[in-house]
Amino acid sequence: RDKRWTVEMAIPWTAFKKTGGKPVPGARWSFLVARYDYSVYLEEGLQLSTSSLLSKEDFHLIEQYRALVFALTAG
To answer: How far apart are CA 69 and CA 67, in angstroms?
Structure first.
């Protein structure tokens, strides 16, 4: 049985051309990563994990998403 999970994402800046392109340092975007676990051992039938603590299982609660703040990095 899993005790934790990890996700790593890579999105090329070119994917954001339609929305204004690469964000500037200090830009804040609303951000949510979520995972449904439908493992057979779960009594409830499924388990929801999110990067933000939502007041209920509703992905439309955008005001409860975390802020993703962009910064410059060396490299």
So the answer is: 6
- Name residues whose C-beta falls within 8 Å of residue 18's C-beta, 6 or more positions apart in sequence: none
Per-residue pLDDT of the chain (75 residues; tens, 9 = 90+): 667 778 888 889 899 898 888 888 999 999 888 887 777 676 766 677 788 888 987 878 889 999 989 888 776
Give the whole-angstrom CA distance, residue 70 versus residue 74.
Answer: 13
Lookup result for tokens 């070119």: 14
> Considering the entire predicted model, what is its pTM?
0.62
